[in-house]
Amino acid sequence: MFNQLLINSMIAGSIYTLIALGFSLIYSTTKFFHFAHAAVYTSCPYFAYFYSIYCGLPLGASIALAILSSTVLGMCTELAIYKPLRQKGSSSLVLLLSSLGLYIILQNVISMSFGDDTKTFRSGIVTEGLEFMGGRITPIQIGIILVSALLLVFCWAITKYTKMGTAMRAVASDPELATVSGIDTDRTILFAFMLGSFLAGIAATLISFDIDMTPTMGMNALMMGVVAVIIGGVGSIPGAALGGFLLAFAQNFGVWKISSQWQDAIAFIILLVFLLFRPYGFFGKKIRKVEV
Amino acid sequence: MLKVDSLSKHFNGLQAVRDVSFTIQKGTVTSLIGPNGAGKTTLFNMICGYLKPDKGTVNFQGKELNGSPPHAIASMGIGRTFQNLRVIKMLTVLDNVLLSFSDRHMKGFPGIFNVLRKDPEAKNRERAKELLDFVCLSEKADNSAGSLSYGQQKLLSLACCLALNPAILLLDEPVAGVNQEMIINILALLRNLRDKGIAVFFIEHNLGAVMEVSDRLIVMDEGSIIADGIPSVMKEDPAVIEAYIT
Amino acid sequence: MDYLLHIIIMVGIYSIVAMSLNLLAGYTGLISVAHAAFYGIGAYTTALLALKFGLPFWVNIPAGILVSGVVAFLIAWPSLRTYDDYFVITTFAFQIIIFSIMNNWVSFTGGPLGLPGIPQPTIFGMTVSTHLLFLSFVAAFGVLTYLFLGRLVDSPFGRVLKAIREDEIFAMSLGKDVMKYKITVFVIGAATASIGGSLYAYYISFIDPTSFTVMESIFMLSIVIIGGAGNLKGSIVGAALLIFIPEILRFVGMPNSIAANMRQIFYGGLLVFFMMFRPQGLLGEFAFGKHDHKDSKEASENA
C-alpha cells in the first residue's frame, strides 16, 4: 500500500511540477497571477482531440500540432491582453482580474465546442499496469514521470545556459535594471509565456492519457501548481519540483489517513500555511513584502 | 521629549542606520541633513513605527515606543509627512483633514453603529476648517485634493498631520519641489508651530531653507551622525563639508 | 410574468450580495473571491434552522448573519496579513476549504445532495408563497441593506475605508488602525452577504454546494467590478445587467445547451473588456490601482 502511494505521489508530483514550472516562469517575469494558464493547459488535449477525431490526423501529428496550438494560444493571451495592459501601467490586480475573465471565456468555449462530458484518448481496454516494487504503474504513468524529469532538466538548462534564460532571470529579479541593461523585456516575457504554455500543454496531454479530460480540469490543476510554486518558492526551478512532489506526497498520504474528498482542502491548507508563514517558499527570494 | 538611543538598522547586509542617538526638545526646529543614502528616511521610519530597529530604543515623552505600530505612534502625538507626498487625491481637501479625527466609531464593537447617527462630526468640521485656515487652504476646502498644486498638497498634508494635535512633527522634505514663494510660506508655518511649543524635526536637502529656519542641525552620513549642533557653527565643520562632497 | 418576477428576485438577491462585496472590494480595495462561501454559510444556517427546528425567518436570517460574521472574523486576521494578489489567493484558498466542508460533511450539510424541502418564510401567519410576495420580501431586505451600507460608506468610517484603499500608509500616519478597519469591513461584508444566501435558500427551497463554488464568487466579483467598484448603485446595476442580458439571449432563441456557457462568456468577456478599457466599471470610482507597496518599499529603502 505504502509503495503504491509512493508511486501515485511520483506520478502526481511529476504533473504538478510541470504545471508549477510553467506558471513559475510566467509569474516570475510578469509578477501577476496568469489564471488563464489553466485554460491554456486544458486547451492542449482538446486541440489534440480535435485534430485526431475531427480532422482525422494520426495521433502523433495531432499531439504535436496541439502542443503548438496551445503554446500559440498562451502567447496570444500575452500579446492581446497582458502586454497592452502592462503598457498602460495597469496594476497586477487588473491583470489578475482580466486573466480570470479570459479563463472564463476560454473554458466555456471549450465546453461549448466539445461538451462537458469526459473525453478520452484511450482506445481499447484499460490495462492493469505493470508490477513495480509492490505497486502497479502503467506505461503511460511511467511516461509521465520520465517526460517530466526530462522537461525539468531541459528548463533548468535553458534558464542557466541560454541568453533568453538569463534574460528571464534578470527580468524576474529586477525589471527596471533589466531594461536599462538592454534586455527586451517584452520579448523575454513572451518567451516565458511560450515556454510556460508549452509545459502546461504537455502536462495536460500526458494526464489526459492517464485520466481523461474535462473542460474544467485546468483550474484545479493550476491551483495545485500555484500551491507547489508557493511551497517551493517563485522563480526557482528546483523549488517547483520540490513543491510539486511535496504537495503530491502530502495529498496522497493525507488521503490515506483521512478520505479522498479532502484532497483539495489539504492542498489549500498547506497553501495558507505557507502564505502566512513563509510566502517566499523554500527557495524563493522575498519578492513581495507581506507587511511594511 | 523625543529621545533616540543607539538606533540601528541593516538591510541585506547594508548597515543603513548605525547607532544613532539624540534628543529633541519641544519648541525647537531641528533639521536632519545628509547625502542620499545616509539613512535619514530609514531613521524616520523607525521612529514612527514603520520599520523595526535591529537595536536601540525610541522614547517619547517618557514612554518607550519600540514595537508599537505606526498608527498607535501617530495617535500618541508624533505627526509625520512623507517624501513622496501622500494625500488622498480622490477626497476633498476638507475630507482629507477630517480623516485624522478620532475613531470614536471604532471603540468597541457597537461603536460601529455610531455611523447611523445624524451628523456625528460637526465639531470636527469646525476644527478642520481652522486647520485649513492655518495653512491658508480655506478656499480650497471643497475641492478634490488631486486638483491642488504640488505645493498646496504639501500644505494639506501638514494640516492633516496637525489635526492629530502632535507634540512633534517629523517632516520628510517639506519644501522639496515647490516654488520660492511656497517655501517662504512653509518655513513661516514651521516657525509658527515652533512658537506654539511643537517640536519640528525635518529632513531636507535645501540647505538655504535649513539655514533659514533651524535652531539645530543634525548631519548624517552612511548611517551615522557625523555632526550635531548650531547651524552657523556647522557650516564651517570640515566633516560636514566632506560628507557632501564625497 | 412569473418568469420576469423570478429574474427580478434573483437580481434582488445578487444585488444584496454584490453590495456587500463592494464594501470590501470597491470601497476598501480588498478583492475577495471567498464571498460565495459566506453567501453559502447564510444559506445553510437558515436552511438547517428552518428544516430541523422550524424556526422563523427573523431568527434564521440573523443566525446566518452571526455565523457568517464569526467565520469571517476567524479567517480575517490571517488573510489580511497578505496583500493584493496574494490576498486574492488567500481568499481563494478559504473559499475552497469552506466549499469542501459543505460538500463533504455529509451528516451536517447533506453533502453533494444538499438540503431539500426548505419551508417558506411566514410573516404574521401569512406564507410568502407567491413570486410577488417573495419579491416584496427580498426588496425589503434589499432596501434595508442599501440604506445601512449607504450610511456606512458616507460616514467617517466610510471615508477611512476609501483612504485605506487609496493609501494605507497615509491612513496609518493619521492614527488609523488599518488592520482593525479591514477586519471590521471583512466581517460586515460577509455578514451582509449571508442575508442574500438566506433569501436564496428560502426562495429556491433547496440548496446544494454547487451554488457556492469559487466560480460563483468570481461571478459576484464580476458584478461588483462591472457595475462599478466603490459605488453601491453600481452593484445593483451590475446585478441587473449580468442577470437580465443572458436571460434575454435565452429568449431570443439560444439553445439551452449552450445558454449557461454563453452567460459565462458574456460576463467573462465584460470583465476583460472593462479591465482593458474602464477598470472602474460603469459607475465606480476605484480602478484597482495599487499605490502603497511600491511607495512603502521606497520609503523604507531610501536613506
Short structural summary:
The complex is a heterotrimer of chains A (292), B (246) and C (303). Chain A is an all-alpha fold and 292 residues long.
Structural descriptors:
heterotrimer, A: 292 residues, mainly alpha, ABC transporter involved in vitamin B12 uptake, BtuC, two-stranded antiparallel sheet, 2% strand, globular, disordered C terminus, B: alpha/beta, Rossmann fold, four-stranded antiparallel sheet, 24% strand
Order of SSEs of chain C: HHHHHEEHHHHHHHH
Which segments of chain B are poorly predicted (pLDDT under 50) over 5 or more consecutive residues? none
The CATH superfamily of the largest domain in chain B is P-loop containing nucleotide triphosphate hydrolases
Domains of chain C (count): 1
Radius of gyration of chain B: 19 Å
The overall strand count of chain C is 2
> For the record, what CATH class of the largest domain in chain B applies?
Alpha Beta
Topology summary:
The complex is a heterotrimer of chains A (292), B (246) and C (303).
Chain A: H1 2-30, H2 37-54, H3 59-87, H4 92-114, E1 130-132, E2 135-137, H5 139-161, H6 163-173, H7 175-180, H8 185-211, H9 217-232, H10 237-257, H11 263-277
Helix pairs in contact in A: 1-5, 1-6, 1-8, 1-9, 1-10, 2-3, 2-4, 2-8, 2-9, 3-4, 3-8, 5-6, 5-8, 6-8, 9-10, 9-11, 10-11
Chain B: E1 2-11, E2 14-24, E3 29-33, H1 40-48, E4 55-60, E5 63-64, H2 70-76, E6 78-80, H3 93-98, H4 122-134, H5 150-162, E7 168-172, H6 180-195, E8 199-203, H7 207-213, E9 216-221, E10 224-229, H8 231-234, H9 238-245
Helix pairs in contact in B: 4-5
Chain C: H1 2-27, H2 35-53, H3 57-79, H4 84-104, H5 106-109, E1 122-123, E2 126-127, H6 131-153, H7 156-166, H8 168-173, H9 178-204, H10 214-227, H11 232-251, H12 256-277, H13 292-301
Antiparallel strand pairs in C: 1-2
Helix pairs in contact in C: 1-6, 1-9, 1-10, 1-11, 2-3, 2-9, 3-9, 6-9, 7-9, 10-11, 10-12, 11-12
